[in-house]
Design brief:
mainly alpha; Fumarate Reductase Cytochrome B subunit; 2 strands; about 70% helix; about 5% strand
């Protein structure tokens, strides 16, 4: 298997980025829903699940940054035959997914009111306690953390997390299945076996 992308297939690094990103998004969502549905606030289990969610979110942020750099350094395989509308839809869908993958970790970190105990190895300071926060938010915009955090949290949880991310992820998965089962082209194969 080649490391870099070719005109026919994605390379092993692009595939690794794709599937690890998918797994981390699943872990982030699982932790949020588990925390909300099966734990009570102010319990050790709730705190542990929150810390796992924050750790996964920061990992996603770093991974997506590396993924964007890798994508800029590699050409993509040739698109499968299709209409202009199909190609435009695919392009808009991919740009939207990258937008979500970048914005979710950023808004998650900016709106978090606690430090992150990164996989219980070391602490990452919350944004509120950084000099950048004090310079831009407190001194520059003259906002309290609560005033700053409310719209950020709304974007992260209500707009991106509850709706937009799910719509894009499900749409992406259905598009891959549609290409594989109905169009019978190589769209899904390029990101899996490459055969």
């Amino acid at each position: 298997m080649r490391i870099k992308n070719t005109t026919k297939n994605y390379g092993s690094i692009a595939k690794w980025f794709h599937w690890v990103t998918a797994a981390l998004f699943l872990a982030a969502y699982t932790s949020v829903y588990y925390r909300g549905w099966f734990t009570s606030e102010e319990t050790p289990e709730n705190w542990t699940i929150l810390q796992l969610h924050l750790s996964v979110g920061i990992s996603l942020g770093v991974l997506v940054l590396l993924r964007v750099i890798w994508r800029l350094m590699n050409s993509n395989p040739q698109p499968e035959p299709g209409t202009k509308l199909e190609h435009l839809s695919a392009r808009i869908g991919h740009i939207s997914l990258y937008f979500i993958m970048i914005l979710m970790p950023i808004t998650g970190y900016l709106g978090t009111s606690v430090d992150t105990d990164f996989f219980f190895l070391f602490d990452i300071t919350k944004f509120e306690n950084t000099s950048l926060y004090k310079l831009i938010i407190e001194e520059g915009l003259n906002l309290t953390f609560k005033t700053f955090e409310e719209p950020i949290d709304f974007i992260h949880k209500n707009i991106l997390g509850e709706w937009l991310a799910w719509i894009l992820i499900i749409g992406h998965a259905f598009a891959a299945i549609y290409h594989h089962k109905f169009k019978k082209d190589r769209t899904l194969i390029k990101m899996t076996t490459g055969q």
